[in-house]
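Quick check before the chapter quiz. The format below is the same one you will see on the exam, so make sure you can read both the input and the output lines.
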Amino acid sequence: MNRLLDWPRLFGLACAAGAVGLGLAYMAAAGAPPRYLLVNLAALLLGAVAWLGLARWPSSRPTWNGRTVLALALPLVAVALFAPAVDGASRWMTVGPLSVQVSLIVLPAIMVLYARNADAIGTVGIAIAAFALAAQPDRAMAGVLTAGMGAVALTKRARLPAFALAAAATGFGVTMIRPDALPAVPFVDRILYTAFGVHAAAGVAVVAGCVILLAPAIGALRTMYYRPIMSAFGACWVGVVAAAVIGNYPTPLVGYGGSAVLGYLLSVALLPRSIRGDFQGESGEAKPQAVRSSDQG
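Here is the expected output.
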C-alpha cells in the first residue's frame, strides 16, 4: 500500500477503476437502466485514454498551467450564459443523448493545475471560474472551488492564491443566497442514503467507492514539495463527496454520470508521477534530484 501511495497518478487510476466498478455493482443491484452502466464504463475508458495522453504534461513550461486554467474556465462561462436552464440552473450542456455537467469535468483539473503554478494568469482564470459558477448557479462546485483554493492558499502562503481564494469564496457566497431547489435524480443524487434501501452490500459499495476516491490525497501527508497539488486534489474530491452527502448533487463515480468520471481521471492525470525521494523540509531547501528527475510540480 505504501508503494502505491508513492505513485499518486497510477494509484488514482486504480482508484477510479475501483470506484466505477463498485458503482456498476450498485446500479446493477438497484435495477438501473443498462445504458447507465454503459455510460459510466465508457466514461472510464475515455478518461483512461485522456490519462495516458496527459502522462507527459510539460514540466519545462510552468506558464502552461495558468494559461490552461484560463482556457478551461471559459467553457464554464459559456454554460452559464448559453446552456438551457433547468429549474433555474444552467449547469449542463447536451452532447448527443447525454447531459454533461461541464464543471465536474474541468474544475478538478483547474484546481490541480493552479496548485502546480499559481501565477497571475491562472488567478484570473480562477476568478472567471468563480463568476461562472455563481452565474449558473452551482452551489456545490462553487463550494468545491473554495475548498480547493483554501488548500492552495494554506500550503503556498502567497498573495495570488489568497486572491484566488477570495474570488472563489465570493462566488460561493453568491450561490448561497440564490435559490437551488433541484430535485434528486434517481441513481445520481442521494445514493449514499438510498443505496442501503436496495441492500446493505449496495450501500457499503457506494460508501467504499466514495472513500476510495480520496485515497490518493493521502500523498499530501507524505510529501512537502508536492503538498499544494495533493492538497488541492484532496480538497476538491472531499468537497464533491461532501456536497453529495449534504444536498441533491451527483455522487461521483459510484452514481450515474460520466462527467465526474472524466473529471476525476483528468485531475488524477495531472498529479505527480511519483513522490518518492521527496525529502523537502520545512526550511525550504531545494527539491532533491530524485524528485526533479521523477516528475514535475
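If your answer matched, good. DSSP finds 13 helices and two strands in the chain.
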